[in-house]
Amino acid sequence: MNTSVTGLLTLLLLAASTLSTAATPVRIGLNYPSSGEYRQEGLMQRRGALMAIDEINAAGGVLGRPIEMLDADTASQPDRAVANVDQLADQGVRMLFGGSSSAVAIAAGRRARERGLLYFGTLTYSNDTTGKDGHRYMFRECYNGHMAARVLSNYLEQNFADKKYFYVTADYTWGTTTEASMRQFTDTTDVTAHPQVMVPFPRFHYRELKAAMDAAAASDADVLVLVLFGDQMVKAMRLAYELGLTERMQITVPNLTLSMVDQVGPAIMEGVVGATPWTWNVPFHFGHTRGQTFVNEFVRHYNTYPTTSAASAYSIVYQWADAVQRARSFDSEALIRALEGHRYTLLKDEQQWRAFDHQNVQSVYAVRIKPRVDVLDDPMKQDYFQILESMAGEQAAQSHAEWLAERRAHGKPETLE
């Protein structure tokens, strides 16, 4: 065989190899609750992620390769989440994301770092996630308890200053850190004047939740703060209604989502106040056209409005893909450099991946659940959230000095490792 033919065959084989590589999917892993207390939030994460993947793949994928998503059920249990990280890593995923339980996200993120993979938190509101437990491989897209309490306390201080509070709190890292932030910003740190009952999580008995709500009913509190999420919050709100607490107390749920309101219903949830980093009506309220398109397409796909967790998962997939394109690499260290300090606009106003703690700094909102009659006027019967107040992310988030103080108090390095 002459050299020209040999050269031609070599070029053809190289071209075929290049095409094969270009067509090979790049895998990402969703570590989420498809069962357990937070399963409804998990379902929304999966829907948002799949929608983003479909859009990105239709536009050519990342570095010429389509994205393929693998997923595993955490059931909101940290040990299962850690095992899932190993399972998904062994299947070749290049990054991991998910959450709902902060204990899950923290444990899974720690294991992801050991496997050399980035972990993006979707719903992980504990201050610890990017605080004392923060590390280089963890990026949190959602806000945290500090940011939620900061915007919510503005409303509460204007309307319920010097009132008595009662706290019912999920006994794990999200619950305890969120309660601490709420107490700090509402000046209710005196636990004798403003009592508290802890409820086990994730495994709890109904009688334990009932006892906590009975204690709230027996108090003379003006404000009932339910630092609960998912199915726990749903059950607690039904008990609050049965006990008549919705009539005599201002009920506050620091982190509100559409899925939870859906499950309880607007007749019971009417008047409840809370906080959120995003709701489906934010893009329409503030005129963010890209966010409006996302909402409309989500409704077309799933016949429901997207929740906060759907928007978070959708945004994470887009932000990871964007970082890959900018870094021209799937390497975790290259992506960390591409993400740190990066500012972008997607579903609302500008957001930033803050370099020193990897917290996503963004606008946050205090909201109140609308009357049932107003909700029923909406074509989807899901127009739940009245936006009471918007706060810039820089105002809501911990300062660098506060973050350093927290790290020092727990004997952690002053830079992420």
User: Beta-sheet strand percentage?
Assistant: 15-25%
User: What is the mean pLDDT?
Assistant: 92
Q: Give the CATH H-level superfamily of the largest domain.
A: Response regulator
**What's the helix count?**
18
Helix content: 40-55%
Shape: globular
Distance between the termini: 57 Å
The radius of gyration computed from the alpha-carbon positions, rounded to a whole number of angstroms, is 23 Å
- Outline the biggest β-sheet: 7 strands, mixed
What is the architecture of the largest domain at the second tier of CATH? 3-Layer(aba) Sandwich
Number of strands: 15
Please list the strands of the largest sheet in the order they lie side by side. 7-6-8-9-10-14-15
Number of structural domains? 2
**CATH domain class name of the largest domain:** Alpha Beta
Instruction: Label the structural class.
Output: alpha/beta
Uncertain segments of ≥5 residues (pLDDT<50)? 3-21
Written description of the protein model:
By secondary structure, the protein is of the alpha/beta class. It has two domains: 23-143 and 287-362, 3-Layer(aba) Sandwich (Rossmann fold); 146-281 and 364-396, Response regulator (Rossmann fold). It is 49% helix and 18% strand. It has 18 helices and 15 strands. The chain has helices at residues 3-23, 39-58, 78-90, 102-114, 145-160, 173-186, 206-218, 230-242, 245-248, 258-264, 266-269, 282-286, 289-302, 308-327, 332-339, 372-376, 393-396, 400-409, and strands spanning 26-32, 67-73, 93-98, 118-121, 138-140, 165-171, 196-200, 223-227, 250-255, 273-276, 343-344, 351-353, 360-361, 364-369, 385-391. The strands form three sheets. The protein has a seven-stranded mixed β-sheet with strand order 7-6-8-9-10-14-15, sandwiched between helices. α2 packs parallel to α14 (308-327), α7 (206-218) packs across α8 (230-242) and α8 runs parallel beside α10 (258-264). It is globular and about 65 Å long. Keywords: Amino-acid transport, Receptor, Signal, Transport. Residues 25-370 form the Leucine-binding protein domain. It comes from Isoalcanivorax pacificus W11-5. One of its GO terms (biological process) is amino acid transport. Belongs to the leucine-binding protein family.
